[in-house]
Write a structure and sequence with these properties.
Keywords: DNA-binding, Transcription, Transcription regulation. It is a single chain. The chain has 185 residues and is α+β, with helices and mostly antiparallel strands. It is built from 9 helices and 4 strands; from the N terminus they run E-H-E-E-H-E-H-H-H-H-H-H-H. 58% of the residues lie in helices and 10% in strands. It has a 4-stranded antiparallel sheet, with helices on both faces.
């Protein structure tokens, strides 16, 4: 029987590499690895206590409860949606991905994380905006379009509301006050 592990805070390819390296060092045979999920080959006994300790040292957390696993999958889906600049409707996307109604997902997420799914998405988008401003490859209108805002004015207003400064002020200060994705919640 295969063993599937769910791991919190795996948000990028470097996270995958770090987890893969540690699992290999411990002698585990990994069949597949994706953000937040590892499938071990058949007949691989898992020493959960040791694995949990090593993952915690790397900033990850082994998830046991079903609701925690679902929350982490929701986060990963939203992260992928923002990173891939997917313009589909978030509530429809999550409902179809998890085969649950959006109000159920939203209530569960809010009760566990203390913020709404929408607020989490906005926080991710603001960090993406900061990254795009820092890279300097797109103007504000192009950034707004790429993140599916109706116009740059809407993005500018939301950025100011969330960060306390305008996008121009952020760009000019050159103090890139950015959060790591796994620090957003």
């Amino acid at each position: 029987m295969k063993t599937t592990l769910y791991i919190k805070n795996m948000v990028c390819d470097r996270c995958n590499s770090a987890v893969m390296r540690e699992l290999n060092a411990l002698g585990y045979h990994v069949e597949s690895l994706e953000l937040g999920q590892v499938v071990l080959d058949q007949d691989t006994p898992v020493e959960f206590t040791k694995l949990e300790k090593i993952l915690q040292e790397l900033g990850f957390e082994l998830l046991i409860e079903e609701t925690d696993v679902l929350i982490e999958k929701i986060k990963t889906a939203i992260i992928n949606k923002v990173e891939n600049q997917d313009h589909s409707n978030l509530s429809t996307y999550l409902s179809s991905t998890f085969s649950k109604s959006y109000p159920v997902l939203s209530k569960l997420f809010s009760s566990k994380e203390g913020i709404s799914i929408e607020k989490y998405r906005i926080n991710l988008q603001m960090e993406k905006v900061k990254e795009m401003i820092q890279l300097g490859e797109l103007n504000f209108s192009e950034i707004a379009y790429s993140l599916d805002y109706n116009n740059s004015g809407h993005l500018a207003k939301q950025f100011k509301h969330e960060t306390g400064m305008s996008m121009t002020e952020f760009k000019n200060q050159r103090k890139w006050d950015r959060k790591s994705i796994d620090d957003i919640v």
